[in-house]
Amino acid sequence: MAESMVEGKQSLVDTVLSKAQDQQLKTTNVENEELIELDEGNLLAVNENKTDTKDFKKKKETILLSLTRDATQALFNSLWKLPVEQKDGAYLITLPESKTWMPREKPVPKKKAPTKWEEYAKTKGILNKKKSRMVWDEPSQQYKPRWGYQRANDDTKDWVIEVPDNADPYEDQFEKRKTAKKERVAKNELQRLRNVARSQKKKVPGIGLAPTEKPSKDHLSKALAVAHKSTASIGKFTDRLPKEKPSKFTGKKRKFEPSIGNLGSEKEKQLKVLDSVSKKIPTINVTKAANRMLRQDEEKRAQDKQSRKTPKKVKGRKASLGLGKPGRQGGGNKKTRGKRKR
């Protein structure tokens, strides 16, 4: 029994070895490699080797497989000639610029303009350090996320807040904390919108007046107008300079009708509205109606004139006798022509 099992295993090994010897592994060499067009930047290989049409019809699959294999092998051969570096057990190849222009449905995205903070950090040489997501939470004595659900050092869950010495003892500190957070969120959103508007080269929304290194005359007058409006009366009772001119940055003043004015004119307006509502008679545009009637009359005259110009078709017996045909005297057949003359 044991001998038969050994003989069976030996026969299986012999068959596997014979099959491996029969298989001819192809080399990395490619015939007519110069005819294969390569574009390493797009990982593209175009095989331009010509084949016989008769052979292609008979052995379509085998020919296509061999052409694809040659193109792929030539592409890999050229890729291994490029500079290769090994990183974390993987081989990285730096691809060159693409030679073939590939059509795109949409244009290439433009590079985003740097924000104000990025420009400031670049001038000051500040490097962007990535913060770790997990931080130490003192109350729970464990690591928790810096932000989000169940974040560390969450002050919104405090059930009591100590009132500062210089604060009003009757002021709601919880509401004050919520208001401060809303203001921070609104400020961040405004800054984001300012960055978006500046990147798209549109008018940047502002708060108050931004400082400049070399203020102009208009800038100073605008700053003065803003300072006047910053009072509780919006500049109504602010003292003016002796030769101060009215600012052109104040905007247009809205005009309202007086709450107590001419009662007669107000009564007349109300009566007109009531009269139009009660009658419900649609207003007729006399000029529009007259123009429409004139247009209809002109169209009718043009149709009558066209109908007079077109000749009527000759029907019945006259057509058979040939009376309607010009250029022939008498009309009709030769046999009937004489009879009609008699």
Automatic annotation (TrEMBL):
For this UniProt record, the keywords arranged alphabetically read as follows:
Nucleus, Ribosome biogenesis
Question: What highest taxon heads this organism's lineage?
Answer: Eukaryota
Cellular component terms per the entry's GO annotation: nucleolus; preribosome, large subunit precursor
Composition bias, Gly residues: 324-333
From the UniProt record, give one GO term of the biological process aspect: endonucleolytic cleavage in ITS1 to separate SSU-rRNA from 5.8S rRNA and LSU-rRNA from tricistronic rRNA transcript (SSU-rRNA, 5.8S rRNA, LSU-rRNA)
Q: Which InterPro entries match?
A: Ribosom_reg
Q: Where is the composition biased (Basic and acidic residues)?
A: 237-247, 294-307
Pfam families documented for this protein: RRS1
The subcellular location is: Nucleus
> What is its biological role?
Involved in ribosomal large subunit assembly.
Q: What PANTHER family does the record point to?
A: RIBOSOME BIOGENESIS REGULATORY PROTEIN, RIBOSOME BIOGENESIS REGULATORY PROTEIN HOMOLOG
Q: What is this protein called?
A: Ribosome biogenesis regulatory protein
Q: Which organism is it from?
A: Elysia chlorotica
